[in-house]
Amino acid sequence: MAHTPALPGFLQRLPGRWVLVGAAFLGGWLLFVLVWLVARRDDVAAPVPMQPVAAPAAFEPLPRPMPAGDAATPLPPPSDEAPRLVEAAPPAPAPAEPAPLPPSLEENAPAVAAPAQPPVPLPDQSPSPRYPVGALRRGDTGTVVVQVAVDAEGRPVSVEVVERSGSRELDRAAVEAVSRWHFAPARDAAGAAVAGSLSVPIDFKLE
C-alpha cells in the first residue's frame, strides 16, 4: 500500500473542500502574476513608432527686377492737348401732358353791368385847384389828367395822374384839389347808385 505524504499541519486540520478552494485560489493568483509580467515585458519591448519629419517646403526665388531698357514697356508720349471733362448731356425731360383746365369761373359768373351813368363832379363842391406860387413865378403851364374812382356815396376813393403836365407842382396841385371834390355817384340801368370812375382834365393857364 502506497504511503501518502503528510500535509502541513494547518491543512490537515481543514476539511477537504477548503483545501481545494485554497489551491485553486493560489493557482489563479500565480497565473495572473505570470500574465501581467508577460504583458509588461511586451509593452516595454515594443518600440514607439517615430513620426516622420516633414521636409521643409521649397520656395522659388522671386525674379530680379528687369533693368530699364528695351525690354521695359515704353510709356506713351505726353500729349500737348489739355485734358477735357466730357459731360454727357442729360436726357431731355419728356413733355408733361397738360392737365385738363377747370371750367372757367368767368363763364359761369354773372356779368357785371357797366354803370349806365358815370359819376359827375358837383359844381358847387368841386372848386378849381390853386395855382402853385412857384409854378406861377416860373410861368409853368400845362394840362393834368387824373383818374378818379368814386364810391356809391359820391366820395373819391383814389386819384391817380394818368397824363402829366411837365411840372411836378402842377400835378400835385391837381391831385390835392380833386381829392376834396364831391361827386354825384354813378348809376346803373335801374337808377341805383353804384361805384364808378372818370377822367378829369385840369388846365393850368396864365391869363
General description of the model:
The chain is of the alpha+beta class and 207 residues long. Among the domains are: 15-40; 120-204, TolA/TonB C-terminal domain, CATH 3.30.2420.10. The chain contains five helices and seven strands. It has helices at 9-12, 16-45, 105-108, 133-138, 168-179, and strands at 120-121, 142-150, 156-163, 183-184, 186-187, 193-194, 196-204. The strands form three sheets. It has a three-stranded antiparallel β-sheet with strand order 3-2-7, with helices on one face. The protein has a two-stranded antiparallel ribbon with strand order 1-4. It has a two-stranded antiparallel ribbon with strand order 5-6. Strand 2 (142-150) and strand 3 (156-163) form a beta hairpin. The radius of gyration is 69 Å and the shape is rod-shaped. The model is unreliable at 101-112 (pLDDT under 50).
CATH architecture of the domain at 120-204: 2-Layer Sandwich
The helix/strand class is alpha+beta
Q: Largest beta sheet: what is the strand line-up?
A: 3-2-7
Provide the CATH top-level class of the domain at 120-204: Alpha Beta
Alpha carbon gyration radius: 69 Å
* Overall geometric form: rod-shaped
CATH topology of the domain at 120-204: TolA/TonB C-terminal domain
Order of helices and strands: HHHEHEEHEEEE
